[in-house]
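User: I'm new to structure prediction. If I give you an amino acid sequence, what do you actually give back? Let's try with this one:
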Amino acid sequence: MLKNAIARMITVALAAPALALTVSTSASAAPQSDTVHWENAATHKCLNWGNDVFGNYELARPGACDTSYHGWSQWKEVSVDGRFWTFRPDDTVNGHQSNMCLTSYNTLVYLETCQDGNWWQQWEQIWTPGGWKLQHRGADWVQGFYLDSDGSRTYTEPWNAGLNQVWH
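Assistant: Good question. You get back a string of structure tokens that encode the predicted 3D arrangement of the chain. For your 168 residues, that looks like this:
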């Protein structure tokens, strides 16, 4: 009997920390995110965001890179599923991260309110010898288009071997 009581105490003593670790790990699980900036390999201009005259977020023209704290070249990348990511302006409003996402529809690229499961707001980062290609998840005829820039605008197009689709 004493042997059974001691065995139960040992089991509880060993199981309790494991249970606590499991509970704390699952309770703190959140989407993986980092702050990044994207500089185009061909134009050496950054993917920038800004605000319109009303203070609303918008995709700005490619330009100089501002990688300061909450600079207009800083993006918060948030993992959707470990393969696809959303990109949000790295800006905090009233203590909360911006809820605007880099979006592409057809070949247009712009910012709109983030929506869970919206494929038009999801990007895959593909490593190439020259840098990263950002492949748009999308759907239909534009599925798999890549983020592209000619230095004056940002858009998506089918894969090509040019540096305008390569980002650092």
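You can read the tokens as a compact description of the fold. Here is one thing that stands out. The first strand starts at residue 33 and ends at 36.
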